[in-house]
Amino acid sequence: MKDEIKAIKPIPDGKYPPVIEGSDESLREMTYKKAHEIYGDKLPEVVEERLEKELKSIISNGYSVLYIIAQKLVKKSNDDGFLVGSRGSVGSSFVATMSGITETQHSIRSIFRLLWRQGTRYWFKLCWWISTTST
């Protein structure tokens, strides 16, 4: 009898994330839309580089669908009057802030931290950008 029973694997190897068609493009569009609302038509180089770095990692690893799901849940909850936000690896990213998943403000703190790591060249670019966009 034992020889007649085949070995089965209840959970196959690999990643099996949920699928939402167009989630890669949706995440990219919503993050850039919000970034442009905050920083204007011409994004500061450091902002665009950070967004691209995070989006590339998120999309290439197949996690954009998880960000879209989190964004939809947070938006629905907020629309219904519940104050919620995401924390952890999703909630602490710049993409999460730009997509409305979290209310954490990365716009200043993270940019200055990134500028500090990148060196003087970026400080001068930020100062130039601020001087040209001030009203």
Structure characterization notes:
The structure is a single chain. This protein has 135 residues and is mostly helical. 61% of the residues lie in helices and 0% in strands. It has 7 helices and no strands. It has helices at residues 23-39, 45-60, 64-79, 88-91, 94-99, 109-118, 120-133. The N and C termini lie far apart (82 Å).
What's the SSE blueprint?
Blueprint: H1 23-39, H2 45-60, H3 64-79, H4 88-91, H5 94-99, H6 109-118, H7 120-133
Helix pairs in contact: 1-2, 1-3
Describe the structure using short key phrases.
single chain; 135 residues; elongated
Short recap of the structure:
The chain is mainly alpha-helical and 135 residues long. The chain is 61% helix and 0% strand.
Main sheet: strands, sense, barrel: none
Radius of gyration: 20 Å
Low-confidence stretches: none
Chain-averaged pLDDT: 80
| Overall morphology | elongated
Contiguous helical run count: 7
Count every beta strand, where a strand is a DSSP E run of 2 or more residues: 0
Q: How do the SSEs run, as a string of H and E?
A: HHHHHHH
The end-to-end distance, rounded to whole angstroms, is 82 Å
| Percent of residues in β-strands | under 5%
Query: What structural category characterises the helix and strand content?
Result: mainly alpha
